[in-house]
Amino acid sequence: METEVVSEATRGAILLTGASSGIGHALALRLAAEGYLVFAGVRKESDRERLVDEHPNLRPISLDVTIAADRARAAQSVAQCGLPLRAVVNNAGIAVGGPLEYLPIDRLVEQFEINTFAPIALTQVLLPHLRASHGRAFFIGSIAGRMGVPLVGPYGASKAALAVLVDALRQELRPHGVAVSLFEFAAVKTPIWAKGRAGAEHAIEQLPAEALAQYGKEIQAMLAQTKAEERHGLHPTVIADAVLAALHASHPRERYVIGRQAHIQSIIALLPMRLRDRVIAAALKH
């Protein structure tokens, strides 16, 4: 799909997290080309410097979503830009995996801090601006939040918790003219999965011998499965297209389930639990 490039931001401001790569990067460029002033949140200074030159409508900002001071500075940047805030897109996230029996609790806490608590906290500080503009709060979820899967429980749980919070937030904000949407999909060709695999491989090296004896086969099967899913995953621009459609819709949907694999997994999640367990086990070739 060809997009007309608008050289000046005239359609309002967008605050986007996790803009350095993958979905966030694709969406940042798409929104900028559509004429939005995009406050593109990144953690690394090198990413901020790189994004500066990619489009005149991009305003890269240093934003660690888990740090309150960073969130406050991001809200201040929006307030000072002179444009209405059309949307916040909570995209930043990480994927933590491994057998729960041996997972350090601080890693589980980190998973929830980044994927669940930070998006709500950032939206809180932006709500005065969203309420004033009748803007939108978008959250990048995952179909993994629909059901538990071995060895990726932390990631799925963080997205499940986010989905419930977003459901509540949507109902609370509807009377105030702020639309809230959740986007769910399966594998996407983004660095989060490569980073997750690298983290998992490092975690495997740290596991005690008894853990490898108990879970080694399952871990290797899961790593192979996630690698295969990523290879056949959606392109980030597919997600960017869905977010843009929701931004421009007069009445955006409550949830956007994107891609064939996500629809299949949403059906599997509805199966009786014992049957669902067998389907998942077969998929992982236990």
What is the strand and helix layout of this fold?
Layout: E1 13-16, H1 22-33, E2 37-42, H2 45-52, E3 58-62, H3 68-80, E4 85-90, H4 105-133, E5 136-140, H5 153-173, E6 179-185, H6 191-206, H7 209-231, H8 236-248, E7 255-258, H9 260-268, H10 273-284
Parallel strand pairs: 1-2, 1-4, 2-3, 4-5, 5-6, 6-7
Helix pairs in contact: 1-8, 3-4, 4-5, 6-7
Keywords: Oxidoreductase
Enzyme class: oxidoreductase
InterPro entries: KR_dom, NAD(P)-bd_dom_sf, Sc_DH/Rdtase_CS, SDR_fam
Provide tags for this entry.
seven-stranded parallel sheet; 55% helix; Rossmann fold; 10 helices; disordered N terminus
Commentary on this structure:
The chain is built from ten helices and seven strands. It has 286 residues and is an alpha/beta fold. The chain has a single domain (13-284), classed as Rossmann fold. A seven-stranded parallel beta sheet has the order 3-2-1-4-5-6-7, with helices on both faces. α1 (22-33) packs across α8, α3 packs parallel to α4 (105-133) and α4 runs parallel beside α5 (153-173). The longest helix has 29 residues, at 105-133. GO terms for molecular function: 11-beta-hydroxysteroid dehydrogenase (NADP+) activity. Pfam families: adh_short (PF00106). Keywords: Oxidoreductase.
What would the CATH topology be? Rossmann fold
Rg calc: 19 Å
Q: Could you list the spans in which at least 5 consecutive residues all have pLDDT below 50?
A: 1-7
- Principal-axis shape equals globular
* Strand neighbour order, sheet with most strands: 3-2-1-4-5-6-7
Structural class by SSE content: alpha/beta
CATH class: Alpha Beta
User: Which whole number gives the mean pLDDT?
Assistant: 92
Tally of separate domains: 1
CATH superfamily heading: NAD(P)-binding Rossmann-like Domain
The total beta strand count reads 7
Q: What is the makeup of the main sheet?
A: 7 strands, parallel
Order of helices and strands: EHEHEHEHEHEHHHEHH
Second-tier CATH architecture: 3-Layer(aba) Sandwich
Number of helices: 10
Helix content: 40-55%
Please indicate the percent range of residues in DSSP E strands (runs of 2 or more): 5-15%
Span of the ends, CA to CA: 42 Å
